[in-house]
């Protein structure tokens, strides 16, 4: 399998404080990798390094053959090919749902307004929200907003999707509607890197699980191995805490 | 008191008001445009640019407007002459407009900066993540939201500017107040004209302020 995302020895500091220490892993095409770990472990920072929303000082990240840290890399172009979904949705509140889905298609990819709107509506239909096309983000529930955010990312025909705690800001009853969309996406073969605490989702959908603590990748293995017999003490502790409830 | 002299003076007074409003509108548009650029400069990661923008704001906020108006009246023609090689008289209106735009830009810049900073960081993150350039992030995502939030403050500052335009008397420009005063001086009865001018400034500024407050409440919902 060819690696879609390759992370080699990446280290990152905020001033004196080291947030990432020599992280190395990769995500193959079509693979679903769940990144978990206690808060402050650097998992969100790591995933944000993949599309250069965060800079890193050492190591390299290669996305589909392009080096993210290279000063010559056309970052907007690279980012337009990698979808990202955020904890707080980050839909654009001053634009209707239709325009939220169309704006980057038109302004970044140069598609026509009609083509972009049509594609947006198709994706909106897919996440079950076609009836809300004319509304504004503030009129939707959190779960609905996150589904729109996923559709927005998909509208760019991404080669991979990054999810940064997509269900952490949601009320419990809305978590499943978002996880269902993500599950469907995974089953269709989308390459996905998901920072999440949803271990049920990881068990069901992930190919691999990465466990991080204090900026380091502690475990990086198949999900059976991770849930069956994690090697590290810290992963065992983390799992026992998170699976208790 | 005798107000009978006011009626025949109305066309002249209206001309003065037209000049005041023309100056106000152009100065607000120019000041907001320049102020936005300065705000973006202040928020830039480019250190030199950020310090230059900060210096600009602090400089213009530390000197009196009257000084800037007189200064530009004298300096703008000289600069143009230096640039073009020919004597270039620019007239008081243009020099005043340049002075107001540059002076007000310092105040507008601080409003715009606060407006930009009030938009959650994640919005820019999401806009970058979807492939937008810096210019697109600002133009399509951040500034539209920021301007919506800061419109009441920009209007409030414009009301202050409306009153400050009267300082153009220093270079002999016939705005509303200057016209009113000279009409009164001609007939030797300045008091009635000054009272009228005061009433006009008060009523229009007060009404505009009230409208801005209502707008603010509506936007707050």
Helix content of chain A: 25-40%
The level of helicity of chain B is over 70%
Number of helices of chain B: 8
- Give the structural class of chain A: alpha/beta
Counted by DSSP, the helix tally of chain A is 9
CATH fold description of chain B: MetI-like fold
Which residues of chain A form runs of ≥5 with pLDDT under 50? none
Q: Quick check: average pLDDT of chain B?
A: 92
- Largest sheet composition of chain A: 6 strands, mixed
Mean pLDDT of chain A: 93
**Distance between the amino and carboxyl termini of chain B:** 48 Å
Estimated radius of gyration of chain A: 18 Å
Proportion of β residues of chain A? Answer: 25-35%
Could you say how many structural domains of chain A there are in total?
Answer: 1
What separation lies between the terminal Cα atoms of chain A? 36 Å
CATH architecture grouping of chain A: 3-Layer(aba) Sandwich
Q: In CATH terms, what is the architecture of chain B? A: Orthogonal Bundle
In short:
The complex is a heterodimer of chains A (245) and B (221). Chain A is of the alpha/beta class and 245 residues long.
What does this structure look like?
The complex is a heterodimer of chains A (245) and B (221). Chain A has 245 residues and is an alpha/beta fold. Chain A has one domain (3-242): P-loop containing nucleotide triphosphate hydrolases (Rossmann fold). Chain A is 38% helix and 26% strand. In chain A, strands 6-7-8-3-9-10 form a 6-stranded mixed beta sheet, sandwiched between helices. Chain A has a 4-stranded antiparallel beta sheet with strand order 2-1-4-5, covered by helices on one side. In chain A, helix 3 packs parallel to helix 5 (142-154) and helix 5 (142-154) runs parallel beside helix 6 (172-187). The longest helix of chain A is centred in the last third of the chain and has 16 residues, at 172-187. Chain A starts with a strand and ends with a helix. The relative contact order of chain A is 0.17. Chain B has helices spanning 6-42, 47-60, 65-84, 91-117, 121-129, 134-164, 176-186, 190-220. Chain B is mostly helical. The model of chain B has no long low-confidence stretch (mean pLDDT 92). The radius of gyration of chain B is 21 Å and the shape is flat. Chain B has a single domain (7-220), classed as MetI-like fold (Orthogonal Bundle). Chains A and B meet through helix 2, helix 3 and helix 5 of A and helix 5 and helix 6 of B.
């Amino acid at each position: 399998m060819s690696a879609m995302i390759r992370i080699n020895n990446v280290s990152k500091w905020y001033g004196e404080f080291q947030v990432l220490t020599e992280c190395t892993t990769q995500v193959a095409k079509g693979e679903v990798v769940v990144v978990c770990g206690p808060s402050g472990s650097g998992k969100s920072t790591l995933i944000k390094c993949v599309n250069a929303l965060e800079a890193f000082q050492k190591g390299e990240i290669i996305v589909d053959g392009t080096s993210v840290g290279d000063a010559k890399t056309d970052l907007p172009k690279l980012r337009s090919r990698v979808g990202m979904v955020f904890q707080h949705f980050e839909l654009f509140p001053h634009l209707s749902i239709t325009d939220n889905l169309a704006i980057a298609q038109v302004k970044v990819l140069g598609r026509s307004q009609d083509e972009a709107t049509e594609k947006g509506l198709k994706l909106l239909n897919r996440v079950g929200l076609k009836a809300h096309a004319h509304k504004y983000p503030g009129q939707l529930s959190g779960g609905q907003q996150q589904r729109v955010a996923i559709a927005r990312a998909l509208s760019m025909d991404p080669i991979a999707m990054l999810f940064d705690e997509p269900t952490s800001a949601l009320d419990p009853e809305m978590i499943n509607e978002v996880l269902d969309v993500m599950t469907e996406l995974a089953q269709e073969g989308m390459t996905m890197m998901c920072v999440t605490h949803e271990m049920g989702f990881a068990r069901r959908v992930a190919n691999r699980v990465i466990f991080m603590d204090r900026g380091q990748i502690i475990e990086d293995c198949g999900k059976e191995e991770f849930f069956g017999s994690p090697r590290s003490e810290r992963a065992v502790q983390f799992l026992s805490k998170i699976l208790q409830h | 008191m005798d107000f009978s002299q006011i009626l025949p003076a109305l066309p002249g007074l209206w001309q003065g008001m037209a000049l005041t409003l023309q100056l106000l509108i152009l100065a607000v548009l120019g000041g907001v445009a320049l102020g936005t650029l300065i705000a973006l400069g202040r928020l830039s990661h480019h250190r030199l640019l950020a310090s230059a923008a900060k210096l600009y704001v602090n400089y213009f906020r530390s000197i009196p407007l009257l000084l800037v108006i007189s200064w530009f009246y004298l300096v703008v023609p000289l600069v143009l002459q230096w640039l073009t090689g020919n004597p270039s008289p620019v007239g008081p209106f243009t020099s005043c407009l340049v002075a107001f735009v540059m002076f007000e830009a310092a105040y507008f810049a601080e409003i715009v900066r606060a407006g930009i900073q009030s938009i959650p960081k994640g919005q820019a993150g999401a806009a970058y993540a979807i492939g937008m350039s810096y210019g697109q992030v600002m133009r399509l995502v951040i500034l539209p939201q920021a301007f919506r939030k800061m419109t009441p403050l920009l209007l409030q500052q414009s009301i202050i500017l409306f009153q400050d335009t009267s300082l153009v008397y220093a270079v002999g420009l016939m705005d509303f107040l200057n016209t009113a005063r000279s009409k009164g001086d001609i007939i030797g009865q300045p008091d009635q004209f000054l009272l009228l001018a005061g009433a006009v400034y008060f009523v229009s500024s007060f009404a505009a302020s009230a409208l801005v407050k209502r707008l603010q409440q509506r936007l707050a919902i």
